[in-house]
Amino acid sequence: MQTLLIKIKAALQAGLTQVRDGDVFITPDLSFIPAGVKSQLAIAVKDGTVINKELTCGVIERTMPVHFRVFVRLQKNHEAPVVGDASTGSLGVLAATEAIKVLLKNNLLGIAGMQAALPDAREPESELFVGQAGNTVAWQTKDITINYIRED
After folding, report:
1. d(Cα 65, Cα 49) in Å, to the nearest integer?
2. What is the pTM of this model?
3. Cα–Cα distance list, 31 to 5, 28, 37, 71 (Å)
4. What residue ranges do the domains of the chain occupy?
5. For 113-150, what is each residue's pLDDT tens digit?
6. CATH number, span 2-151
7. Furthest C-alpha separation in the chain
8. Which pick of 3, 40, 64, 97 has the fewest CB atoms within 10 Å?
9. Cα 150 to chain center, whole Å?
10. Count of CB atoms within 10 A of residue 105's CB?
C-alpha cells in the first residue's frame, strides 16, 4: 500500500496542473487539512481496508481501495466550489473528482502485479466541510474511491 500511495500522489501531481504539488497530500484522516494547503483546490489521498483473497497456486489477490477527498475553498460565488468557475478556469469538486478518475482509471502506475484500477461504483454527494480547531476555512468536498487489484 505504501508504494501505491506514493505513486498515486506523484501521478496526481504530474497529471493535474490545476492543483499545486504541495496541495496533493497523503493523509492520516480524510478530515485533516495540512496547514501548508494554500490554494483553492486540494486533494487528500488515504489508504483503505485491504482485502486479501487466496487464489489457486498460492496466488494472493489484494484489493486495495484508495480514498480521495477533494477540497475546494468556498468563495463569494457559492456555485463555483461545486461546478467550477469558467471565468477563472478553477475546478469545482465535480470536475476535480472526474479528472482524478480519468487520470487513474486503468492506470496501473507501473507496479508489478497490479491488475486493475477501477473507480468504485458508488459515489456520494459533495458536502460542506469546515476545518478543525482554529482553522475555520469552509470547503466544499467530494469523496471518491478507486479500487486497485494486485496479484502477488
Report:
1. 7
2. 0.93
3. 17, 9, 13, 10
4. 2-151
5. 999 999 999 999 999 998 665 566 889 999 999 999 99
6. 3.30.2000.30
7. 59
8. 3
9. 19
10. 12
